[in-house]
Design goal:
By secondary structure, the protein is α/β, with parallel strands linked by helices. The protein contains six helices and seven strands, in the order E-E-H-H-H-E-H-E-E-H-E-E-H.
C-alpha cells in the first residue's frame, strides 16, 4: 500500500444520512516507508500493534451500517496509527506529545522507544496526515451541503487495564465511554448514546478518554457539526490484547445502529 489515496476510504451511505462513522485506529497496516523509521523488531512491533490497535472497530462500524434503517457514511483509516494518528494535532497543541504520541509516535504504549530521538515525522505528516484531514473535511462539507448537518461518531476501543502511555487513565473505565466536546456534543446526542448502549453494564463520560473528532475547519465554529466518541472497553467484545472478536461484536453493532437511527431521525 504505497499510494496515499489508498490510506483511507470513504464508504458512501444513504444520500440523506447526516451520520459519518469515523474509524481511525482499526488497521494494523504499515507501509514499508513508515516501517523503516520504526526501531523495534518485528515481534515487538506485533505486540505493540496488539495493544495500540482498536481491533475489529471497522467491522463493528460496517455491521452497524448494514443494520441501520438509513445507512451512515463511513470514513475508515486503512493504515495503523503507528504511521500517523489522524486524531492528533500535528503541532505543539497536542498534549500527547508529552508521552511521545503526537501525530507521529516516537514512543510505544509502554513509553519505550518506537522511533529514534530526533526523528523527523514531517514527511509522514505531509504524505498521510494532511491528505487524510483534507478528505475528512471534504466529507463533512459534502454532508453539510447535502443535508444541512453532520454528526461524526468516532468508533474506538480501549484496553481493560490502563497502559503506561495514558495521561488520564486513573479514572473510571466503564464498558462504554462517551467522549464529548462542549461545543459539538449536544445533550440530546449524549442521551441517545446512553440509551443505545444501556445494555452493556454502564456508560460513562470522558473517562478514561475525552473529546470528539471534528475537522479543524469546523471546530468550535460550526454548530451544524455534531460529534461524539464511542470508546468500547475491549473485554466487551474481544480477547485482549489483539485477539479475536466474540459475540459482543454483533450486539455492539446493533447498539451502534440504534444510535445511528436515532441521530438520523432527530431534527
Amino acid at each position: 500500500m504505497n499510494d496515499t489515496s489508498e490510506s483511507f476510504r470513504l464508504l458512501p451511505g444513504a444520500p440523506d444520512s447526516p451520520v459519518i462513522l469515523h474509524v481511525p485506529h482499526s488497521s494494523r497496516a504499515i507501509p514499508a516507508r513508515a516501517r523503516d523509521g520504526i526501531v523495534i523488531d518485528d515481534a515487538a512491533l506485533e505486540r505493540e500493534l496488539d495493544h495500540i490497535t482498536d481491533a475489529h472497530t471497522a467491522e463493528i462500524a460496517a455491521a452497524a451500517a448494514g443494520r441501520a434503517r438509513v445507512a451512515p457514511w463511513r470514513f475508515v483509516n486503512q493504515l495503523s496509527r503507528l504511521v500517523i494518528d489522524p486524531e492528533r494535532f500535528p503541532d505543539e497543541r497536542e498534549e500527547m506529545l508529552a508521552v511521545g504520541m503526537g501525530a507521529v509516535y516516537t514512543r510505544t504504549t509502554r513509553r519505550e522507544d518506537l522511533r529514534d530521538a530526533g526523528f523527523d515525522g514531517q514527511p509522514l505528516i505531509d504524505r498521510y496526515f494532511h491528505p487524510y484531514a483534507a478528505a475528512m473535511t471534504a466529507a463533512v462539507d459534502e454532508r453539510l451541503d447535502a443535508v444541512g448537518r453532520v454528526v461524526v461518531v468516532d468508533v474506538h476501543s480501549y484496553p481493560t487495564e490502563r497502559l503506561p502511555y495514558e495521561l488520564h487513565g486513573d479514572g473510571p473505565r466503564p464498558p462504554i465511554c462517551l467522549g464529548t466536546d462542549a461545543f459539538h456534543t449536544p445533550p440530546a446526542l449524549v442521551a441517545a448514546a446512553q440509551k443505545a448502549f444501556a445494555g452493556f453494564g454502564g456508560t460513562g463520560l470522558d473517562s478514561p478518554f475525552a473529546g470528539a473528532y471534528v475537522p479543524l475547519k469546523h471546530y468550535g465554529t460550526d454548530r451544524r457539526v455534531g460529534a461524539l466518541m464511542i470508546e468500547i472497553r475491549r473485554d466487551v467484545y474481544m480477547t485482549e490484547p489483539g485477539g479475536p472478536a466474540g459475540p459482543g461484536l454483533g450486539v455492539l453493532a446493533e447498539a451502534l445502529a440504534e444510535l445511528v437511527d436515532a441521530v438520523g431521525a432527530s431534527a
